[in-house]
Specification:
heterodimer, A: ABC transporter involved in vitamin B12 uptake, BtuC, 11 helices, globular, B: mainly alpha, two-stranded antiparallel sheet, 2 strands
């Protein structure tokens, strides 16, 4: 019993790492230009299909698809931002237009995937799929370990990029005050492109890494979009460390929760968490205000 | 010709707009009698069903400025209430309509009130999450037959209280009545306390708060009204199709509801109607042609239309179409139009 629960916790933390990754992507996009990307999960789905196709057509290891995934998603993200999102962001008054735009991306990508790959579930099998190392009573399969390691390395690279490079500083400046940033010479439109491209690439990379131990199907994006929402609501919209903690916490909650109430009610556990956080955030905000 | 000053007593029949409106309503009443095919009557019913759903969504989505991507959940509540009342308790559908409205109104208040207390697009995120959760719950719920769904067999004799008829006409007139009533409700909301409160919140939240408008409460009123209206449509849908399954909670059903309002114009009385006139024949056509050959392909075209609309005409086609129609009507009835000014 004890070891099963330990296994559940480990699995929760691993999947939580990926929730954190797409949550960070969502947060970068929101932080820089106040856009909630409702198609975040669909870009993850895209990453999964790229890895699946590379494995299927070329017979390569799914991890070797990573550069291609990054290239495709970064390019697609820049294209969408430059031609579609930026014009909407600059003219919109409320949130309606941008929500509608990203929902359109969601429908477009989902149904394109349905058209090309049909609604079948696919999985990628590698020689080391079921192999793993045992630590005490807990088994860690290699795909999960490698994926997690790559995710952590990428997150660290991203952190240093944002913190210490000029481009990263410019991006953070835009997030803090876009008017001020443009006055000191930051090209806002380029920052928008960079933010959206990084945001969706993170989702795509998460998808590429997940494909080694997760099924891929056209509507998988819905599952991860809602997870990304919960992550950012937990950590606060716009906060990257918050998203990291939120992701790990959600992974834990979800696997522990579905272990207790049954796996078929996983979505419900996630949603109840979401509503509870919405309510508690309100009380937190109020208590902060009364202190200040 | 008639230079005598007209009497100033208000007479609705003398009003030009009312006249046009009455002519239109009369035309809609006669419309299904002109066609003999059941398919066309079905299309008319689904047209008014879609338009009514979009009108109901528009109250929170357009006037309230809160994009809901989960309004199909209230259609689900209405439909399932009607189904449970009939199959499990053997009671007439009317109770299902009432139960659905009660459940929808209470649910929408409990779940969305916390979202309105936070700034930002939390409401939209919550609606998306809720519809997927309900999909999950209903797929696993034994009582309502899980993914199989609930089907009501046709009784041998048509019966008014059980909403079963030999012809489609009663359904047509019922949905026409609902449609006109929803237009009236929207007009009433627009010119009433709730409409002005929502408009103020949308334009300047700080001002709204400082003049004493309770922001979360007003938005909650709007979402409760909208949810109740949706639920009635859900019960109607179930009575008409006589089948419901948890697929109703899928996101694209909610997008189908939102689409006409966006294309016509958010926060206008006739926007959703105009949007439905534009998009409904197209979706019906695409669903029947390429949608059959390649599953999902008609949603690709709809998504492309959505993107084009947001980029080129984010305020909707309402003003353009209305201006155009006014031009035509004024040409047709030049004298009357002038007289009414």
């Amino acid at each position: 019993m004890n070891s099963i629960f330990l296994q559940v916790i480990i699995n929760g933390l691993i999947i939580g790492g990926f929730y954190a990754l797409i949550g960070i992507g969502l947060n970068i996009i929101f932080g820089v230009m106040d856009v909630v990307n409702f198609a975040q999960g669909e870009f993850l789905m895209l990453g999964m299909y790229v890895a699946y196709m590379v494995n299927k057509a070329l017979g390569l290891d799914p991890y070797l698809a990573l550069p291609l995934t990054i290239l495709i998603l970064f390019g697609l993200g820049s294209f969408l931002q430059h031609f579609l999102v930026t014009p909407v962001v600059q003219t919109q008054t409320g949130h309606e237009s941008q929500i509608f735009l990203t929902v359109a991306f969601m429908m477009l990508l989902q149904n394109l995937a349905l058209l090309i790959f049909s609604s079948n579930y696919y999985s990628v099998n590698t020689a080391y799929s079921s192999a793993g190392i045992a630590v005490g009573d807990v088994t860690l399969t290699y795909p999960k370990l490698i994926s997690l390691a790559v995710a952590v390395v990428l997150a660290i690279i991203l952190f240093f990029f944002l913190k210490y490079t000029d481009l990263g500083r410019a991006l953070r400046a835009t997030a803090q005050n876009s008017m001020g940033a443009s006055i000191v010479g930051v090209r806002i439109k380029r920052m928008y492109i960079l933010a959206f491209a990084i945001g969706v690439t993170l989702a795509g990379v998460a998808g590429n890494l997940l494909v080694t131990f997760y099924y891929v199907y056209p509507t998988i994006g819905n599952v991860f979009t809602t997870r990304a929402f919960v992550v950012v609501v937990m950590g606060g919209l716009g906060s990257i460390p918050g998203a990291l903690i939120g992701g790990l916490l959600l992974g834990l909650l979800e696997t522990a929760g579905s272990f207790i109430v049954g796996a078929s009610y996983k979505e419900t556990v996630v949603f109840v968490t979401f509503i509870l956080i919405l309510i508690t955030r309100r009380t937190l905000q109020m208590s902060k205000r009364s202190v200040a | 010709m008639n230079d005598k000053p007209t009497t100033r007593i208000f007479s609705p029949l003398k009003n030009f707009n009312v006249k046009i409106g009455l002519i239109l309503v009369a035309a809609l009443v006669i419309l299904p009698l002109l066609t003999k095919t059941h398919y066309m009557q079905h299309v008319f019913i689904m047209f008014f069903y879609t338009a009514s759903a979009s009108i109901a969504w528009n109250i929170i989505g357009g006037y309230g400025g809160q994009m809901s991507l989960g309004h199909a959940i209230f259609i689900g509540f209405g439909a399932y209430s009607s189904a449970i009342v009939q199959t499990k308790f053997n009671m007439i559908p009317l109770f299902g309509f009432i139960l659905g409205v009660i459940v929808s109104v209470i649910f929408s208040f409990l779940v969305f009130y916390p979202c309105f207390k936070l700034r930002g697009p939390y409401f939209t995120m919550a609606t998306l999450a809720i519809s997927l959760t309900l999909l999950n719950l209903f797929l696993n719920w034994d009582y309502i037959e899980k993914a199989v769904g609930i089907l009501i067999p046709f009784k041998n004799t048509p019966n008014f209280w059980w909403f079963q008829f030999n012809s489609k006409l009663p359904f047509y007139y019922l949905i026409l009545f609902i449609f006109l009533a929803y237009l009236a409700i929207t007009k009433y909301v627009e010119n009433g306390r709730l409409g002005y409160a929502l408009l103020t919140i949308k334009q300047n939240e700080q001002t709204a708060i400082s003049i004493g408008i309770n922001n979360p409460l007003m938005k909650s009123y709007a979402v409760m009204l909208s949810a109740g209206m949706m639920s009635i449509l859900g019960s109607f849908y179930f009575q008409y199709i006589r089948y419901i399954d948890p697929e109703i909670f899928l996101v694209h059903h909610s997008v189908d509801i939102v689409l006409p309002a966006i294309i016509g114009g958010l926060g206008t009385v006739f926007g959703p109607v105009i949007g439905t006139i534009i998009i409904f024949p197209l979706t019906e056509l695409l669903r029947g042609t390429i949608g059959v050959v390649f599953s999902g392909s008609h949603y690709i075209i709809i998504a492309l239309i959505m993107i084009t609309m947001v980029l080129l005409k984010p305020e909707g086609l309402n003003a353009t179409v209305m201006g155009f129609l006014k031009g035509i009507i004024e040409k047709l009835f030049k004298r009357e139009a002038k007289a009414s000014r």
